[in-house]
Amino acid sequence: MTDRELMDMAEAAAKNAYVPYSRFPVGAALECSDGSVFTGCNVENAALGSTICAERTAACKAVSEGHTDFVRIAIWGEGKGYCMPCGACRQFLSEFSTDMDVLCAKAGGRYVSYRLSELMPHTFNY
Known about the structure:
This protein is α+β, with helices and mostly antiparallel strands. The chain has 4 helices and 5 strands.
């Protein structure tokens, strides 16, 4: 699967976002080593701490299906800046792979790519 195909899946996932507060839909597509892909979107809640990001939605779907071998995630958002994973998502994803690629898009479809270890250099994994 190409980067663009994975990003297209993330964009499609954003269409299901529940964002009555921020009005900022985010989609994610998480690829595992066997080629399976799990998508997710952000789901907001009036109790803001209960909100879940697209990245963690996709990761929870993967883990609940027995996949913990993450190799790449695409994150799509229609903002002026690149849609980067928040700190909680960075830590959450690092539980499974600090070497995974993180593709972050912005308006117009452009994206950048980082290793998770670049975005979260000092995880607290045991």
